[in-house]
Amino acid sequence: MAVLQAFALVFFSVISPRLADKVLSLTDVDFEDKVFGSSTHFVMFYGPWCEYCASFMPIWNQLANHYNKIPHSEHVTIAKVDCTKETPLCAKQNIRAYPTLKLYYDHGEIKRYNGKRRMGELKAFVDKFAVTSEQKEKENSEATGESDNGLYTLTSDNFDRHVEMGLHFVKFYAPWCSHCRKLAPTWKALAEYHKDNVDVTIAKIDCTTESKPCTEHNIHAYPSLKLFKDGREVDHYEGPRSLDDLKNYLTLKISEHSLLSSAITENSETAEEIPSDDAEADMIKPFQLTDSNFDAMVSVGTTFVKFYVPWCVHCQTLAPIWDQLANKCADSASGPRIAKVDCSEEADLCHSFGIKGYPTLIIFSRGIRKQEYRGPRDLNSLYNFAVQHHDEL
């Protein structure tokens, strides 16, 4: 990994001077005027210290060299925001991980990119959403469903297209169902609450007229509330149906989707670009926490955090087990998250939690420090501890 990081930084320093001037740097002062204007902007939110950002930057520069050929282009502009300098802007744009790529188009539409970070896929994504004519808007509306104040009405024809990318919460219902009629105003309020949220859509489908999707997803009772991620059903919500309960559920799922998508994308691309015979190269890694992302990470669900320093022998012994723990917990989309903090880089953060020895293992639940783990450091013991506290939520 050290060799990879060194290579990425050297490659970045050699390649970028020729291309980097083509990437538009945005600030809090000019961001809204530029990205919500007439042209499309594809923006990378990054931190200079982030190794994934450094290794990806040459590709971003190449993308800018392809699109930013004409000054003030009315087609597409490739841009970037340094979140260490523009912290309020990144907070407003709901940035929780680096790099985050967002496309701003059609006078205010926003689409987050979660695909492969390769030129072909990036260009295909940009070209798909760059057209902003009224006909394109009409076609998209017909293909993905009509929105009424944030609530999408789905049909057999547009269901698959609507849920194929991103996170979608869908109500399967029947008009004659009394429980459905009772839920209807709450569902409408939930949709209105999330109407400007680019991370999720709220939708409904009438199973009496649109039987195909209902049959395919084994709907046997009404209403059925299902969460879809990138075209797949990932959860069936069976909890309380008050507006606050539904809001809290989506807050958790949106956070998990955002953080997990970033981690999976980063790790899968590292494995693809650096061929290796090491099976661990394909493993999900623990989330690397810093002072800037710590609160957002631990604010929802359960997060098991390892505070460590690289030179500590006990930390080095635990490292592969901690990686295995992250991979094991990632098998469950709603399970506890595994993270780590390098105290040699984040001294103030570690000091705020009174860290005096390494490694220190602490579990957090919904932003609250719950308990320090002092038991055996084998995989099963650590896993059982994390799951036990997660189940207590």
If you had to describe this structure to a student in words, what would you say it looks like?
- The protein is α/β, with parallel strands linked by helices and 393 residues long.
- The chain folds into 3 domains: 24-133, Glutaredoxin (3-Layer(aba) Sandwich), CATH 3.40.30; 142-259, Glutaredoxin (3-Layer(aba) Sandwich); 287-389, 3-Layer(aba) Sandwich (Glutaredoxin), CATH 3.40.30.10.
- Helices cover 43% and strands 22% of the residues.
- It is built from 14 helices and 16 strands.
- The chain has helices at 2-19, 31-35, 51-67, 87-92, 119-130, 134-144, 159-163, 178-193, 211-216, 243-273, 294-298, 313-330, 347-352, 379-391; strands at residues 24-25, 40-46, 76-82, 100-105, 109-113, 146-148, 151-153, 167-173, 201-206, 224-229, 232-237, 287-288, 302-308, 337-342, 360-365, 368-373.
- The strands form 3 sheets. The chain has a 6-stranded mixed sheet. A 5-stranded mixed sheet has the order 1-3-2-4-5, with helices on one face.
- A hairpin with a 3-residue loop joins strand 4 and strand 5 (109-113).
- Residues 1-20, 132-144 and 259-282 have low confidence and may be disordered.
